[in-house]
Amino acid sequence: MNHKSMPSLTEEQINTEVMDLHKSIYEKFQYEMKYIRPPMGEFSEKSLSVTNNLGYKTVMWSFAYQDWNEDKQPEEAEAKKKILENIHNGEIMLLHGNSKTNTNILGDIIKEIKGMGYEFKSLDEFVLN
Predict the structure, then answer these.
(1) In whole angstroms, what is the distance from residue 4 CA to residue 13 CA?
(2) For residues 4 and 16, is the Cβ–Cβ distance under 8 A?
(3) What value does the mean pLDDT take over residues 11-15?
(4) Which residues neighbour 19 within 8 Å (Cβ) at sequence distance 6 or greater?
(5) pTM, whole model, 2 decimals?
(6) Pair 87, 116: CB distance under 8 Å
(7) Is the dihedral of CA 127, 113, 30, 59 positive or negative?
(8) Cβ of 92: how many Cβ atoms within 10 Å?
(9) DSSP string, 29-97
(10) Cα angle: 65, vertex 101, 1; to 5 degrees
């Protein structure tokens, strides 16, 4: 809910963070969340245990770049190049929604990636073990 580092939280705090977000997403979009990406990619045995007990599958990304800092946005051409040069089968791309650069290039990126022969799928369409 507040994008806090999970290893620094108590079990109760992890539960509150996750379930408050779960409730908010359900109330706004009628969507039952079942996947979680720990904020900043930081996790511990405790945080994995708590989120697993809540019914969540932890999924990490296979590509990310420094796009989260609103005061240090990459140039659009630089961002496109970095994203396109790192495309790979099964990629889980992490792009931050607060990035103005991402907002501006997302449509072009999707078209170019599809033009390269790739498809976009939901996590449910992948076989997750």
Answers:
(1) 10
(2) no
(3) 96
(4) 54
(5) 0.81
(6) yes
(7) positive
(8) 13
(9) H-----EE--GGG---HHHHHHHHHTTPEE---SEE-S---TTSPPPHHHHHHHHHHT--TT--EE--T
(10) 65
Query: Nearest-CA neighbor of 87 among 107, 109, 58, 56?
Result: 109
Burial 107-118 (b: 16+ CB within 10 A, else e): eebeeebeeeee
93-123 confidence digits (pLDDT tens): 999 989 999 999 999 999 999 999 999 998 8
CB 92 within 8 A of CB 66: no
Count Cβ atoms below 10 Å from residue 36 Cβ, excluding itself.
21
The predicted structure's pLDDT at residue 125? 87
CA–CA gap between residue 7 and residue 113 (Å, rounded): 35
Which residue, chain included where needed, has tokens 């650069």? 101
